[in-house]
Amino acid sequence: MMFKTHIAFGSLMAILAIQLIKPPQPWLFFGLMVFCASVPDIDEHKSKIGMKLEFIAYVIKTIFGHRGLFHSIFIPLAIFLILHYWLGWTYIGLAIALGYISHLIADSLTIEGVNFLHPISKFHVSGFIRTGSFLETLFFLTVLGANLFVINYFYLNLF
Questions:
Q1: Which pTM was predicted?
Q2: Pick from 81, 68, 5: nearest CA to 40
Q3: Cβ–Cβ < 8 Å for 92, 69
């Protein structure tokens, strides 16, 4: 998926997570989730985040490949466990992990897919959306509409 789609999907997941979890600082929670919805693409130097951190992206891609370890469940799980158990930052860890996982879920809808358990398993989840295609644009617009709906439902009550 493209950067804008990850941000839109991460926003939708953040709004829903805030309603479910009720974190003490919802704007911080939201910001972390949305930012972390782009972080897994640090393993690709041509991504938005990879271009900002080009050297790190090259190193990660060289060692782990694109959609390898950094597109598995183990990175957000490790981040959450470190932040929760060692630092006591439960909500920060949860926001980071959930934002990261929202990226993985969105990428699992693409033809390229995701191996959530890489490198332990070869189980690969893939969908039907080609990155940058008309279907992704349609998905992006649908997610934007869902964002507007849930913002209205939970916060504005305009219709």
A1: 0.94
A2: 68
A3: no
Mapping DSSP to helix (H, G, I), strand (E, B) and coil, where does residue 125 land?
strand
User: Residue 4 carries which side chain, given as an amino acid letter?
Assistant: K
Asked if residues 71 and 118 have their Cβ atoms less than 8 Å apart, the reply is yes
CB atoms within 10 A of CB 119: 11
Structure tokens at 132: 């940058």
Tokens 């849930």, residue?
150
Q: What is the DSSP letter of 73?
A: T
Inter-CA distances, 126 with 44, 99, 115, Å:
19, 19, 9
3-state secondary structure of 99: helix
Residue showing tokens 């033809």:
111
pLDDT in tens, 71-123: 999 999 999 999 999 999 999 999 999 999 999 999 999 999 999 999 999 88
- What would the 3-class secondary structure string for 5-38 be? HHHHHHHHHHHHHHHHHCCCCHHHHHHHHHHHCC
